[in-house]
Amino acid sequence: MFEHPSFDAHERIVFFNDAASGLKAVIAVHSTALGPAGGGCRLWSYPDPADAVTDVLRLSRGMSYKNAMAGLPMGGGKAVILGPVPDDRRDEVFAAFGRAVETLGGAYMTAEDVGVSPSDLQTAARHTAYISGIETLDGVGGNPSPFTAKGVCLGLESAARFAFDRSDIAGLRIAVQGLGGVGMNLARLLYDRGATLVVADLSEARVEEARDRFAAEAAPVDTVLLSDVDVVAPCALGAVITPDVARRITARVVAGGANNQLSDAAAGQILFDRGITYAPDYVINAGGIIIVCAEYFRNADRATIDAMIDAIGPRTAQVLQAARRSGEPSGVTADRMARDILAAAPGRG
Ligand code: NAD
Which residues bind NAD(+) per the record (predicted)? Predict the structure, then answer.
């Protein structure tokens, strides 16, 4: 484990196996330097359990960087549940997951991610206090996806301003890959701002919905990122920008909600070499964790949260400008900025 390419000095990696429910899960705590490690729980059917470990490690480190860049009092962690989970065992599995989170005594706080619904978390919440994204009080809390989408939209607008030197996104063609909680909300925001949408999802019903509501064009799932558009917004799973895709993208901007969009550093370098602006994913998709964190600590009102999410726009511009000055890919610049924040944290070590 310590030699794993994505290990990156994780503080803790815990494997859970609950024979009674069938739960198999991994919780990774990358850093608690800034506070308890916060990050969602993903339920996914991985072809190989080793893929689940790689995924959780990459996601967990991403949460450390995301939370640091968003100025949150939270470290980085993530959980994955290995699917598939049969419908008739779902409640038992999420109850067992809640008990698993509880054993970490607050070092890790969980919330929604791909494949996990607010009602799954309600089940888990009966067994752990270390959970968020479930309860709205005075407009703070609940499903984070719309807040994530808002931040992504602001980050995308900043990246488009940077790349095209224009004040708004009206009239731009934007491809959205994945129309789930984040992607569908993002599509609505982009449509409201006058963008023309090209969309793809594995679910035909979601594509139909986007067609009806936003006059979106449908694209094939395997080539949506290569569409003839100005901006691509990956909002499904990670590692979709491989070196091969990076070489073939015709859009001038990549800005979406998915975590870990770049498969590796080479993909980021190719985007940079081709003059394609990449808005680092964890910089622009922090809206959800901002509200999750506020619900968990009950330390911010709605106006404060909105201001924190609004700050994603200028922060994206700051990262892109710093990268231009340094002559390096924006992901490299963002990682360095995040690591500097972590290194200066009082709770470090
Ligand atoms: P979701 O499960 O609600 O939606 C994902 C959507 O992507 C589904 O509609 C699914 O059918 C579609 N999809 C899956 N594979 C696809 C493919 N190959 N091509 C096209 N569509 C595909 O998930 P979500 O909450 O919207 O999260 C989407 C991404 O955003 C994930 O990477 C997640 O980690 C990231 N993210 C989510 C949040 C949040 O608040 N939900 C916050 C930060 C980051």
Answer: 178-183
